[in-house]
Design a protein that fits this description.
The structure holds two protein chains of two kinds. In chain A, about 70% of the residues lie in helices and about 0% in strands. By secondary structure, chain A is mostly helical. Chain A is elongated. Classes of the chains: A mainly alpha, B alpha/beta. The interface between A and B is large, with 38 and 44 residues.
Chain lengths: ~210, ~210
């Protein structure tokens, strides 16, 4: 009696490790992006924990948000939100275009996405310069700059990825069969947008 | 379960859902902070429920190229708690008599979800190994030559592993009766039939009837 795996030896049999199972057929690059986004969620989660502590749990939490006399530029940030959300649509359009072999649509979508992301980041910098308070003006200001700054850093990283895709795109890379290099920055870009929706809703609107 | 960020299209769809959900939360919070919080909780619970209930696309049906030689039949037997059941042993004996059969018995190391997450699988593997050893010994005593292995805790993964290496002509799956079988509840037999183009025999072993007798 033996309790080892069936050892097969006659002609035509499979040698070496078996083909991967259904359960392990996750593309390594996609898995890497998922793990990265998981770590990002934890990072943002720690900042949100600080935000909710300052605003809700802290015994000295301000009755109004932001505490008077400060105000958040809700309208400007709202316009910025529209720009960022629109950039997700153009990103999606770009990927759908390359999947269909439409290079013009792909390149136009990528360039528009990049420009809108850049506009978002520049507007945020201008917002910081004119917001009327700084990190030394209280815990609310620290969490405001912490959360929006953390998100801004992610937008900057996303822009770097988009720029690489654009450069490669203009050099003739990517095709309907090979567009994974567009897909992954696309996932990241949508994730950045999702996080901004959460940040904008909780910090500016509620 | 599928990740909302498994692809760009899925991430884009998730973004649209997030926009809708947070629009509702903000509107509710403007009406009342408590209502906003309740809306957030309700939507979060709904999202978790939908996420847990969704199923990924079914894998494509696979053609299994059997390794069996002329006149030979390779039979993969998958069972755990029912591995020593009379019904299963009777089925194996019948198959052994009617074919020049080679058997591979796989006993999945069934474990609780918590223990799986914490990698506490040694006891489950030991239990499965003991059952397997007893079964092989019993088969050997009646002249049936069978090999065996302890498989993954997920029966579908265990079957996948065994199909890759053993490439059977037939798969025999032994379960408890309907109503007491977790495998039947999960549709394991149907999944295996849908996944592989080999004969699948389902054997029901009623251990409680044997204990009651």
């Amino acid at each position: 009696m033996s309790t080892h795996t069936e050892a097969v030896s006659h002609h035509g049999e499979h040698h070496g490790p078996p083909t991967a199972n259904h359960s392990s057929r996750v593309d390594a690059r996609t898995l890497g992006m998922l793990l990265f986004i998981g770590s990002e969620i934890m990072l943002f989660g720690s900042f949100f924990a600080a935000y909710f502590f300052v605003r809700v749990v802290n015994p000295g939490a301000p009755a109004e948000w932001p505490p008077p006399p400060y105000e958040f530029p809700v309208f400007v940030a709202g316009v910025n939100t529209c720009i960022l959300v629109t950039s997700s649509f153009t990103m999606h359009w770009a990927l759908q275009s390359i999947k269909r072999g439409q290079r013009t649509g792909f390149l136009a979508g990528m360039v528009l996405t990049f420009l809108m992301g850049l506009a978002f980041l520049c507007t945020q910098v201008i917002e910081y310069l004119n917001v009327g308070f700084n990190t030394g003006d209280g815990a609310f200001a620290s969490v405001f700059f912490g959360l929006t700054g953390l998100h801004g850093a992610h937008v900057a990283i996303g822009l770097s990825l988009l720029l690489m895709v654009i450069i490669r795109g203009f050099r003739g890379h990517y095709s309907p069969e090979h567009h994974h290099g567009v897909e992954l920055p696309g996932i990241y870009w949508h994730f950045v947008d999702v996080m901004w929706i959460v940040v904008y809703s909780t910090v500016y609107l509620i | 379960m599928e990740s909302p960020f498994r692809s760009e299209a899925a991430a884009f769809r998730f973004l649209l859902i997030t926009i809708g959900a947070f629009a509702l939360i903000v509107l509710a919070a403007w009406a009342s902070t408590a209502l906003g919080f309740l809306t957030f909780l309700g939507l979060s619970a709904a999202a978790v429920a939908v996420y847990l209930r969704q199923r990924g696309p079914a894998p494509e049906r696979e053609r299994v190229e059997p390794l069996s030689g002329p006149g030979e039949r390779r039979i993969l037997v998958v069972a755990n708690e029912t591995v020593e059941g009379e019904e299963l042993l009777s089925t194996i004996s019948t198959l052994a008599l009617s074919h020049n059969a080679r058997f591979l018995v796989v006993s999945p190391a069934l474990n609780s979800r918590l223990k799986t997450f914490t990698s506490d699988e040694d006891p489950a593997r030991e239990t499965a190994q003991k059952r397997l050893d007893d079964t092989l010994e019993r088969l050997s005593s009646v002249g049936i030559d069978a090999h065996g292995e302890v498989g993954d805790g997920d029966p579908l993964v265990a079957i996948d592993d065994a199909v890759r290496t053993f490439r059977p002509d037939e798969i025999v799956i032994s379960t408890h009766p309907l109503g007491r079988s977790n495998w039947l509840e999960r549709g394991i037999v149907e999944s295996v039939r849908a996944r592989y183009d080999v004969d699948v025999t389902h054997v029901v072993v009623d251990l409680s009837a044997r204990e009651g007798a």
